[in-house]
Specification:
Largest interface: A-B, 19 and 29 residues
Largest sheet of chain A: none
Oligomer: heterodimer
CATH topology of one domain in chain A: MetI-like fold
CATH class of chain B: Alpha Beta
Family (chain A): Belongs to the binding-protein-dependent transport system permease family. HisMQ subfamily.
Strand content of chain A: under 5%
Helix content of chain A: over 70%
Membrane topology (chain A): Multi-pass membrane protein
CATH architecture of chain B: 3-Layer(aba) Sandwich
Pfam family, one (chain A): BPD_transp_1
CATH architecture of one domain in chain A: Orthogonal Bundle
CATH superfamily of chain B: P-loop containing nucleotide triphosphate hydrolases
Subcellular location (chain A): Cell membrane
Bound molecules: adenosine-5'-triphosphate, magnesium ion
Number of strands of chain A: 0
Shape of chain B: globular
Radius of gyration of chain A: 20 Å
Strand order of the largest sheet of chain B: 6-7-8-3-9-10
Order of helices and strands of chain A: HHHHHHHHH
CATH topology of chain B: Rossmann fold
InterPro entries (chain A): AA_ABC_transptr_permease_3TM, ArtM/GltK/GlnP/TcyL/YhdX-like, MetI-like, MetI-like_sf
Number of helices of chain A: 9
Chain lengths: ~220, ~250
């Protein structure tokens, strides 16, 4: 069983390395975009709220494969020059995942009593200060657990990129069948690979939960 | 005491023809109210009469439908940075304290001066400790709000408001969430403020406070200012029927 892995180590190594890069870059970008959208959804400006709501309703309800397809084929149809498949995949994953991050952030914000932001506004803080100094730090505790689920989903979702000529871990089975390797063992090794990637995420969640439990 | 201020002079806080609806409900009906610098105005009235809404309208935590509200001759800005700047000058003390739960007592008091007034950290801390001393909770400075009693939390909330050097402080039923034995310690701090000429708008049913500290009592019912007078005349000799009924009810217990 081990030889399946060791004989094809180059495939597994390169595939998972690309998966990790897809995941980390998309996670950071989705976190940023999702938080901004979440702020839009609670902002006092109706137009921003509408943008936030429209975004979430659109991308949370579109299958991820379709988002990929739109970016890869739709853009090509419109003669738009696309960046590399890797960055196009990062774009698709980020667009999709941000909608979920936005909802997690928004519902986290809703767990904080309105009295907290009223008191902050009464002191003279701007909307941005109220959000970053008072509301988000307190909402963080409620945000961590559902956010980890969103990121674990993102990690698994990276395998969709294989269908769009990105050679991440999801593309290993096809390459392995070209080398006439055992398909079942290949899949088992890929599953183990993903489990190994999820472990640090779980530790990160534990750590963040413990850090926010104090206050 | 005069029937002060409808049109003659503009006070520090001046409301003119203010109306406010919540959907169908007309909660503020053509309110005219002028509050002079150094004046202490107690707002009293039955539940749902619009006292909190009036208070919150003064620093625009509630928007109004028509009329004007002026602070120090300036109309309230509608949004954004200039509104925040104005709010910095209007202190607010809430019924439920609303101390920042993730900040220490000291940080609760320094946060506004640091982030809004851009005061230097040392100076903000020094001033905060003085204020905490003044309201009698300096020894709790490094604790978190949840570790304090309600009376202590409310005194911290007053210190937090004072730290901004506000022109006026709004109190919305500052003692009604407190256990009876803690009411007095908060009222004493407020009476002390009144003595030092702080301009205050206080929604409260504490008649002892009104009698000892207020210059004027404003009685509201159904969104209207029905009657206003100095505390002595108001409590001993209310002129309107509704004020008489209301005082009859609250004086019984
Ligand atoms: N956000 C809101 N949306 C809808 N109606 C509201 C809102 N806030 C207050 N009201 C209604 O407006 C009326 C006035 O409310 P307000 O809180 O100003 O009264 P109050 O005099 O402070 O009463 P209380 O003594 O109970 O605090 C009430 O009928 C209340 O139900
Ligand atoms: Mg009220």
């Amino acid at each position: 069983m081990l030889s399946v892995l060791t004989d094809n180590w180059d495939l597994f190594r390169d595939g998972f390395w690309l998966t990790i890069r897809l995941f980390l870059v998309s996670a950071v970008l989705s976190m940023v975009l999702g938080t901004v959208l979440g702020a839009f959804r609670v902002s006092p400006v109706p137009a921003l709220r509408a943008v936030g709501t429209g975004y979430v309703n659109t991308f949370r309800n579109t299958p991820l494969t379709l988002v990929f397809a739109f970016l890869f084929f739709g853009a090509a149809k419109m003669d738009l020059a696309l960046p590399s498949p890797y960055w196009t995949a990062v774009g698709a994953l980020t667009i999709y995942t941000s909608a979920f991050v936005c909802e997690v952030v928004r519902s986290g914000i809703n767990t904080i009593s309105p009295g907290q932001s009223e008191a902050a506004r009464a002191v003279g803080m701007t909307f941005f200060q109220v959000l970053t100094l008072i509301v988000l730090p307190q909402a963080f505790r409620a945000i961590v657990p559902p956010l980890s689920s969103v990121f674990i989903a993102l990690l698994k979702n990276t395998t969709i990129a294989a269908g769009f000529s990105v050679v991440e871990a999801g593309s290993i089975p096809a390459a392995m069948s070209e080398r006439s390797e055992n398909q079942l063992l290949t899949l088992i090794w890929i599953a183990i690979g993903f489990l190994i990637l999820i472990v640090p995420l779980m530790f990160l969640q534990r750590w963040a939960e413990r850090r926010t439990a104090v206050a | 005491m005069s029937d002060s201020g409808t049109l003659t002079q503009t006070g520090l806080v001046a409301l003119t023809g203010v109306n406010k609806h919540f959907g169908e409900l007309h909660v503020l009906k053509d309110i005219n109210l002028s509050i002079a610098k150094g004046e202490v105005v107690v707002v009293i009235g039955p539940s749902g009469s619009g006292k909190s809404t009036l208070c919150r309208a003064i620093n625009r935590l509630e928007t109004i439908d028509s009329g004007t509200i002026e602070l120090d001759g300036q109309p309230l800005p509608s949004e954004g940075k200039s509104l925040a700047t104005l709010r910095a000058d209007v202190g607010m003390v809430f019924q439920s304290f609303n101390l920042f739960a993730h900040k220490t007592i000291l940080q609760n008091v320094t946060l506004g001066p640091l982030k809004v007034r851009k005061m230097d950290a040392k100076q903000a801390e020094k001033r905060a400790l003085e204020l905490l001393e003044r309201v009698g909770v300096a020894s709790q400075a490094s604790k978190y709000p949840a570790q304090l009693s309600g009376g202590q939390q409310q005194r911290v909330a007053i210190a937090r408001a004072l730290a901004m050097d506000p022109k006026v402080i709004l109190f919305d039923e500052p003692t009604s969430a407190l256990d009876p034995e803690m009411i007095q310690e908060v009222l004493e701090v407020m009476i002390d403020l009144a003595k030092q000429q702080m301009t205050m708008v206080v929604v409260t049913h504490e008649m002892g406070f009104a009698r000892s500290a207020a210059n004027r009592v404003v009685f509201m019912a159904d969104g209207e200012i029905v009657e206003q007078a100095d505390p002595e005349s108001f409590f001993t000799n209310p002129t309107s029927r509704r004020a008489q009924d209301f005082l009859g009810k609250i004086l019984k217990h």
